[in-house]
Structures are given as C-alpha cells and as structure tokens.
Amino acid sequence: MAGNSQRRGAMRKAGSKKGATVGSGGQRRKALEGRGPTPKAEDRVYHPAHQRKVAAEKKAAGQRPGGTRAGRGGGPKGRGGVQEIVTGRNSVLEALRAGIPVEAVYLFSRLDADDRTREILDIVSGRGYELLEVGKPELDRLTDGAVHQGVALKVPPYDYRDVDDLLDAAAASDRPPLIVALDGVTDPRNLGAVLRSAGAFGAHGVLVPERRAAGVTASAWKVSAGAAARVPVARATNLVRALGELKQAGCFVVGLDAGGTTSIGDLQLATEPLVVVAGSEGKGLSRLVREACDVVASIPIDSDTESLNAAVATGISLYEVARLRAAQD
C-alpha cells in the first residue's frame, strides 16, 4: 500500500510540471492550436456579406455592381436586373466564348482538369476576370444545388435604360428613331435574337415590359452574339404608357400581326420615326397594345396555318424597314 501511495504521489508530481504532455490531452490541445479566429463574414469571398461589401465599395467609387460606369438606370430609376449564376462546364465555356459580362468565376479547389476547364482557365486569365477557388459546400450553396461540375460563373445585373435613352441614341445617330418593342415575349432566347437583328439593321434600342417578359439574362446574351453590348434595352413599368410617350415624341407605332391591314414591305411609315411592336407567338399583341398602334402590319407567308415567332417576325420587319429607308436615300 505504501508503494502504491508513493507511485500516486510521483504521478501527481510529474503531472504538475509545466508543459507536461503525459497522455493524449496535451497532444490534442496542440493539434487545435494555430488556427486563429474565424474570418469575418465580409472577408469570406463566398459569403453574401462579402458581395455586399464589394458592391458598396464599387458604388462609392462611382460604379455599378456589374463594373459599368454609373449612369441613368432603366425602367424605374436605379432598378437593374438580377444576378445570374451559370453552371456546368459546357454552359460556362459557351458563355465565356460569347463574351457575356462576367463578375466572377468559381472553381472547385480540387477540380479534375479536362479540355473544357483548361479553355475556361485560359479565357479567364486572358481577360483578367476574378477567379475564386472554393470548396464543394460553397459551390453547392452558390448554385442552389444545381449540377455545376465544379464550375460556375456569376453574371452581373444588366443596366437597363429609360425610354428617353433610346430617343437620345437615335438623336445622336442623325437617323430617324427605330425602336423595337416586345409585348409578352417571355423566352430570353427570343430577346437575344431580337437584339441581334436590331444591331444588324440599325435599331436604336429594344423596349420590354418590366413584368411577364424576358429580361437580359445569360441566355439572351449568348443568342445575341454580342449585340446586347451594343443595343440598349429599356424596361417599362407599363408598355402601353411607354408607347404613348414615344408617340408624343413623334414616333409612329406599328404592330406586327398576321391579320394586319398592310404588308410590312409596303409600309409607308417606314421612313418616319418608328416603333415596331412584336407580340408573343401564342397570344400575339395584347388588346391595349394593339389599340395603341397607328398601323397593324403583316408579313405575307405561304400558309395560313403557319406563324412566325417574335424574333423571326422582328428580323424580317427590320430588314424591310431598312430596305425602304435605303431606297428613299
């Protein structure tokens, strides 16, 4: 018993020494040392607080969150688009090839490289885009659980314009205004195709409603083949009211409909300040928009059972207007 008491006393004495690591307790404590405090939310690049901080810094520097120069907003003052996340290797690569605006590119930190990811990295480094390596949980959260294949791209909000901006663009061009308005077109790919035609035939801008209508998303950017960077898009809270403002500014409003009273190729108003309005493929022009039109024109087609979607009809109409204007010159 005395021997046991001596051993216990020796163990207590050894355990009281400074820096002793008898057992596993000291080793575990050492393993936990050196990590430092948790970074603030605004210092974590994947956290919404960091994104708000960056946006505030850019705003203070006179920039919009998307990196464009601050100016007049579209639709209601100061209202822009919505940030969009493009996911997947093919989609991200196609978006980068199309030259859509990029706010940041996110890559999984342990990404398996292939030809697509190598080209993505080449484009990102060549254009100086912000590249962020993140873990899988952060990438899953950023993409809302979508299949991302370790790659995601953030598209900044589009800077929509006012109706007055479209008229200003026409005044600066020394040509009669030519504006396209879309009524109830909800597919962003159709909007992108309209932007491409508008850029090809000299239109000064595109007008879309704020609600129940396609906006300038990544899909619209890709289909426009870069025209979205050249042709301004204005958003209107009320399309009928916006058309009335354009009429007061001296524009004639021409609606496109299969039952129109005149052929678009014979449009006498083509050389005047003009707004061409296209409706959705299913419903066409709404009643109030149709009533706001000065003329309803049609595009002759071979079969009564066929119809043209908004993008095709707009492209044909803009070509005819450009042809008639060139003939007068």
The order of strands across the largest sheet is 7-6-5-10-8-11-9
How far apart are the first and last residues' alpha carbons, in Å? 119 Å
Secondary-structure element string: HHHEHEHEHEHEHEHEHEEEHEH
Averaged pLDDT? 80
- The SS-based structural class is alpha/beta
Secondary structure: number of strands = 11
Unreliable parts: 4-21, 26-36, 62-79
Largest sheet: 7 strands, parallel
Shape: elongated
Number of helices: 12
How much beta, percentage-wise? 15-25%
Supply Rg: 30 Å
Overall helicity: 25-40%
Provide an overview of this structure.
There is one protein chain. The chain is of the alpha/beta class and 329 residues long. It contains 12 helices and 11 strands. The strands form 2 sheets. It has a 7-stranded parallel β-sheet with strand order 7-6-5-10-8-11-9, with helices on both faces. Strand 5 (178-183), helix 8 and strand 6 form a beta-alpha-beta unit. Helix 8 runs parallel beside helix 12. The longest helix is centred in the C-terminal third of the chain and has 19 residues, at 310-328. The chain is elongated. It starts with a helix and ends with a helix.
Outline of this structure?
This protein has 329 residues and is an alpha/beta fold.
Layout of SSEs?
Elements: H1 2-15, H2 25-31, H3 48-60, E1 84-87, H4 89-98, E2 104-108, H5 115-127, E3 131-134, H6 136-142, E4 151-155, H7 163-173, E5 178-183, H8 188-200, E6 205-209, H9 218-224, E7 233-236, H10 239-248, E8 252-256, E9 262-263, E10 274-279, H11 287-292, E11 295-298, H12 310-328
Parallel strand pairs: 2-3, 5-6, 5-10, 6-7, 8-10, 8-11, 9-11
Antiparallel strand pairs: 1-4, 2-4
